[in-house]
Amino acid sequence: MEYELKDAGPSRKELSLKFSPEDAKEAFAKSYTDINSYVRIKGFRQGKAPRRVLENRFAKEAASGVQEQLLQDTVRKVLDETKLKPFGPYEVKNQSAMPEDGKEYALDLLFDIIPDFDLPEYKGIEIKEEEVTVEDDKVDAALDRYRRMFADYKVVDEPAQKEDVLEVNFVAKHGDEEIMSMTDQRLRVEGDILFGLPCPDLEQKFTGAKKGDEVSLTITLPEDHPNPELRGKDAAINVTVLTVNRGELPEINDAFSEGLGMGTLAQFRERIKNNLIREAYVEARQREENEIVDGLIAKATFDVPEAAVKSETLSLMEGQRQRLMRAGAQPGAAMDEQIAKYRPEAEKEAERKIRWTFLVTKIAEKEGIQVTNEDLAQQVEALAQNYRTTPAKIMQRIREFDGVEPMVAEILAIKVMNFIVQNRAGGVKSDSAEFNQAAAETATSVPGEGQTGESGQEQASTVDNEK
Question: Which of 3, 45, 232, 281 gives 20 to 30 Å between its CA and that of 267?
Answer without folding.
Answer: 281
